[in-house]
Every structure is written in structure tokens, then in C-alpha cells.
Backbone:
């Protein structure tokens, strides 16, 4: 027992716990003179037994082999094991390692967290019939194992904390990079106003939107949803952002631009991934909108004069998602916008938003949010439409974790030639 203070200081620094295990083994040899071998074994991922320390008083070929039967039994029960003659112990049977190394006396004590999760074991054994371990020896080894458990648990917690910190830093960097792909300001299109909102379900997401000013004064407005979530979706979103900009700026007409985009992404071999996309070319002179819906949810249009909200497509328009069918030629549809009219489109994270009760926000709540405001006699601007819907979604979901990425874009004509808002809202 007097040797215990010499071990305790070594256990005080969690960052050095693993590197100090060999010294602990050395101390154990000093304390337990009858021990011929010492093993400190860590329980790794998938219940692997990882020998952290293997020490013997005398070098013996194959001396690194330990009794897995005893170790497993100790880990499963978290009970200490003591045998004065392991070769005749019916509880463990004649394990090969016991017979081969003529092991006589064995002690094995579990290393465990404070809440009873196994971390590993310390095992000592002797090959001399006259040198056996006693119950007092087992109690002493149990005390040593308790200190080693604390040190090993702290080391693991410290390692986990460092990994989490590194992951958080990498996630922050990834978020910053992805935000860079999104527009930093709304277009300055004469007579028009814009609104956008973006919130990823994870650190990075697969939803996408963009505003691209065309050389002839038209404005491209795009919103897409990449299949999947997390980093794979975010990488495809980055690819989509670049390919879409090239396609839109090199193709005069919207259908050809989306057809070209589909071919480019098909060539990228996306395997089972695809993109649903809503694309619009807005002409501020004619106030006509060319619209392509590539497997995406239908946009909505608010008619100011009639104080009415309508879905543009009540049924499937027939076009496939991007990256789904090679050689597919996309079709554009015309939508006229009168003074005060607005058009908005979103990804399915809006309709899929739900509280703990799992009741989806749904399409009907989208419509009801706007129709309720109209029934109250309110005049809704483009930005007001966007803010009301996003606020309604957030209130509906409450504090429940967001399941899917959310992207929302709204644009529309002003009632007068007042200056539109210029700063974008990413949520």
C-alpha cells in the first residue's frame, strides 16, 4: 500500500495518461513481486482488444499473448478476477495462452468510466507455483485500476473534446465557404424587389439559390435542391453553382440554358444524385417571366390587383430533375407580372418543417399564411411575403431540430419606381 502515492502523481495529468501506462506497468512489477507479466489492454472501437502495454520480467517468445477468455469475462461483468491456479480453473477453461505459458496465478481488473462503461483491463499473471496472488493483492490492484480508469477516461474525454473542437472549426470554415456561393446582395433591377432566406439543416447544406444579371438587362433567378444532406450535398451544390452560372451566361434562352446544365451535370457522373431546380428569366421591360421547373415544387404567384394567391403549376409540368435523364430538352412557361405582383418559390424544407408532434407545415399553411394577411386587408410587398412565410415556418417548428435545408426566394414588381432593398437575408 505504501507504493500507492508513487502512482497517484502519474495519474493527475489526463493528457499524459496513455503515455504513462508503461510506467504504471513498471510500478506494478515493483509492487507485485510475484508477477511475471503485465498487460494493460484498452477496449477500442467494435470491442477490439488493444494491448497498450505488454511487459514481462524475462523476454519470452510469444510472451505478448494474453488470456482473451479472462479479459472478455472481466469486461462483460466488470468484476475483478483472481485465480491461484488458472490451469485448473473451470470458470475459464484451459485457454491456449494459459497452457502455453504455464500460467499459474492470474489477476484481472476492469478499467471503467464512472458510469460503468468498460475501458479495458489490467492483467497480471505468474508462472511460479509458489508465487500466487491473494485477495489483498486483488484489492490493491483494484485501487490502482480505479486511478488508471480516471486517467484513461479523462484522456478519452480530452481527445473527444479536441476532435469536436477541430470539427467545429472545420464546419465554421465550410459554412463560410458555402455562404460565399450565395448572393451577398439583391439585384438592382429597376421596378423590382427581391427577398431570399437560407438555413442549412446541418453546418452545410445542399439547397441553392442565385441571382445572375444577364447582359441584355434580364435577371436570372434560380433555386435548387440537391438530393441528400451534409457535405456530399454541399459539394454538389458548389458544382451546381458554377455550372449554372456558365450555362445561363452562355445560352441566350432559358430552356437551352437548363438543357445545357443538365448535360454538364450528367457528364460529371453524379451516380444516384440529382437536383430539382426552379429557374426564371425576368424581363423588366415586358414584365414577363420565363419559367422552367425541373422536377421542383411549383412556384406561387401573388396577384396584387385581384388580392389572390395561386400556384403556377397545379400539376406536374413533365420536366425531369437535373442530372436524371440525359439529352432531355426542357420547356419554358410564360408568366406575366402586373404592378405589385410577386412570385415566390422554395425548397421542400419549408413544407417539411415540423414541431415535436411531427405535423408538417405543408403546402396549405404556406397558402394560408398569405391568405390570412389578405383577409385582414393588408397589402403585401415582396419582402413582406417572404418574412411572413419564414416567420410562420419558424413558429410552427418551434425549437424542434430542422430536418431539411430551407431556401426561399421571392421577387416581384413594385407598385411605384421606389428603390428596392439591396441587402440579402440569408437567415
Residues:
Amino acid at each position: 500500500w505504501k507504493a500507492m502515492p508513487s502512482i497517484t502523481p502519474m495519474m493527475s495529468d489526463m493528457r499524459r495518461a496513455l503515455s504513462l501506462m508503461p510506467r504504471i506497468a513498471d510500478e506494478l512489477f515493483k509492487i507485485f513481486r510475484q508477477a511475471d507479466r503485465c498487460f494493460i489492454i484498452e477496449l477500442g472501437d467494435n470491442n477490439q482488444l488493444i494491448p497498450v502495454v505488454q511487459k514481462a520480467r524475462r523476454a519470452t517468445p510469444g510472451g505478448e499473448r494474453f488470456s482473451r477468455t479472462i479479459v472478455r469475462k472481466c469486461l462483460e461483468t466488470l468484476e475483478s478476477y483472481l485465480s491461484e491456479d488458472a490451469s485448473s480453473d473451470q470458470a475459464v477453461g484451459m485457454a491456449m495462452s494459459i497452457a502455453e505459458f504455464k500460467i499459474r496465478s492470474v489477476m484481472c481488473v476492469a478499467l471503467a468510466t464512472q458510469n460503468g462503461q468498460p475501458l479495458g483491463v489490467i492483467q497480471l499473471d505468474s508462472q511460479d507455483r509458489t508465487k500466487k496472488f491473494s485477495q489483498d493483492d486483488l484489492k490493491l490492484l483494484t485501487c490502482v485500476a480505479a486511478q488508471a480508469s480516471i486517467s484513461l477516461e479523462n484522456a478519452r474525454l480530452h481527445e473527444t473534446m479536441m476532435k469536436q473542437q477541430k470539427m467545429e472549426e472545420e464546419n465554421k470554415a465550410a459554412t463560410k465557404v458555402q455562404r460565399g456561393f450565395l448572393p451577398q446582395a439583391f439585384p438592382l433591377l429597376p421596378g423590382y424587389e427581391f427577398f431570399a432566406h437560407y438555413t442549412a439543416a446541418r453546418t452545410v447544406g445542399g439547397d441553392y439559390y442565385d441571382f445572375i444579371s444577364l447582359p441584355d438587362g434580364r435577371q436570372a433567378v434560380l433555386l435548387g435542391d440537391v438530393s441528400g444532406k451534409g457535405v456530399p450535398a454541399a459539394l454538389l451544390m458548389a458544382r451546381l453553382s458554377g455550372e449554372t452560372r456558365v450555362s445561363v451566361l452562355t445560352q441566350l434562352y432559358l430552356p437551352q440554358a437548363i438543357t445545357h446544365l443538365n448535360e454538364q451535370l450528367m457528364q460529371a457522373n453524379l451516380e444516384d444524385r440529382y437536383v430539382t431546380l426552379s429557374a426564371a428569366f425576368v424581363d423588366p421591360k415586358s414584365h414577363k417571366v420565363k419559367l422552367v421547373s425541373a422536377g421542383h415544387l411549383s412556384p406561387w404567384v401573388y396577384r396584387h390587383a385581384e388580392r389572390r394567391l395561386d400556384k403556377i403549376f397545379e400539376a406536374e409540368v413533365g420536366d425531369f430533375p437535373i442530372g436524371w435523364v440525359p439529352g432531355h430538352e426542357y420547356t419554358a412557361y410564360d408568366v406575366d407580372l402586373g404592378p405589385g405582383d410577386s412570385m415566390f418559390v422554395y425548397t421542400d424544407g419549408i413544407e417539411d418543417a415540423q414541431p415535436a408532434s411531427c405535423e408538417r407545415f405543408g403546402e396549405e399553411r404556406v397558402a394560408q399564411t398569405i391568405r390570412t394577411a389578405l383577409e385582414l386587408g393588408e397589402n403585401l410587398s415582396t419582402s413582406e411575403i417572404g418574412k411572413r412565410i419564414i416567420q410562420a415556418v419558424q413558429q410552427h417548428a418551434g425549437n424542434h431540430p430542422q430536418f431539411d435545408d430551407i431556401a426561399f426566394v421571392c421577387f416581384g414588381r413594385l407598385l411605384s419606381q421606389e428603390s428596392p432593398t439591396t441587402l440579402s437575408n440569408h437567415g
About this structure: DSSP finds ten helices and 15 strands in the chain. The mean pLDDT is 85. The first helix runs from residue 4 to 7. The CA atoms of residues 282 and 289 lie 5 Å apart.
